[in-house]
Write a structure and sequence with these properties.
The protein is of the alpha/beta class. It has helices spanning 48-65, 84-97, 110-113, 118-126, 141-146, 153-166, 184-195, 215-221, 230-243, 269-279, and strands at 17-20, 22-24, 43-45, 71-75, 103-108, 132-137, 170-176, 202-207, 248-252, 261-265. Helix 1 (48-65) runs parallel beside helix 2 (84-97), helix 4 packs across helix 6 (153-166) and helix 7 runs parallel beside helix 9.
């Protein structure tokens, strides 16, 4: 298999075949992010020949082990940025070599969705592209702008609404602590307000971890931004759970979370809040 640098995937993609379609990130400007700093380039698309070779290898191993692949997860920060024709070609290769595969997912940026027409989104759904993981991080306009996310609250509403119209499901990653010291609850409330107007399959909360090789670390040293303490972070997560009013899964299952949480809202809201209150 062709893999470049550290391979990242959501916790719920543990059973998926990880297929490298891209390496790095097309944006690569978020102040907090260091995930792809180990690469010698910001972004690269995998050659189709490499993708086909990896699918051939996966198909061979499937036959050897008697395993039928149900899902493929394209790796890289945002493979959904690839042009429509190329994504369709990858989907066709997956179906050719792994006929048992039912869906193809990937990470996606909000801005990637806007590169596709409504018809193209519908055709991608028909080709099996479904279950995108979107690093929304927050809907707090001030935080989005400061962190150089490259989109705003309105973009989240518009583009995710277009995914829903096409029938493509998606999960959100929320980054606890991204609004900074004293603003966590405010960021959680506005994010819940946006989520409540949409239908994400899951809202996954991860703790912001600040590394010395990030631009955000330098902003802190300059006195331009202050991080939340641990207690405020969990108060923020509690506020998010309290204000989510839609039917969705809530999870805090990543390695950055000291407390592992999972539940289905609104059914498990009381249980989730009880765990958070106990931890606080």
């Amino acid at each position: 298999m062709h893999y470049t640098g550290t391979i990242w995937r959501p916790p719920y993609e543990a059973g998926s075949l990880l297929l490298e379609a891209t390496a790095g990130c097309t944006h690569h400007q978020c102040k907090f992010c260091t995930l792809y700093n180990d690469l010698p380039f910001p972004f690269r698309m995998s050659p189709l020949e490499d993708i086909e070779e990896d699918l051939q290898e996966a198909a061979k191993r499937n036959r050897m082990w008697g395993w039928e692949c149900q899902r493929v997860f394209l790796t890289g920060a945002n493979p959904f940025v690839l042009k429509f024709d190329l994504l369709m070609e990858i989907a066709a290769l997956v179906k050719r070599y792994l006929p048992s595969c039912e869906s193809i997912g990937s990470f996606a940026r909000i801005t990637d969705i806007g590169l596709k027409s409504d018809e193209e989104l519908q055709r991608l759904k028909s080709a099996g592209v479904d279950g995108l993981t979107i690093g929304m991080e927050t809907a707090d306009e001030e935080a989005l702008q400061f962190m150089n996310k490259g989109y705003g609250k309105k973009d989240i509403l518009v583009q995710c609404g277009r995914l829903e119209q096409a029938g493509i499901s998606y999960q959100f990653f929320y980054l606890v602590g991204i609004s900074g010291k004293g603003r966590g609850a405010e960021g959680a409330k506005v994010t819940a307000e946006v989520c409540n107007q949409l239908h994400p399959k899951l809202v996954g909360a991860n703790m912001l971890t600040i590394y010395p090789d990030s631009e955000l670390y330098q902003e802190i040293r300059k006195g331009n931004w202050q991080p939340e303490g641990e207690k405020e972070k969990y108060m923020e997560m509690k506020t998010l759970v309290e204000n989510l009013a839609i039917k969705t899964e809530f999870a805090a299952m990543g390695a950055s979370n000291a407390v592992q949480l999972y539940g289905v809202l609104p059914k498990d809201k009381t249980k989730l809040l009880a765990v958070l209150n106990e931890h606080l």
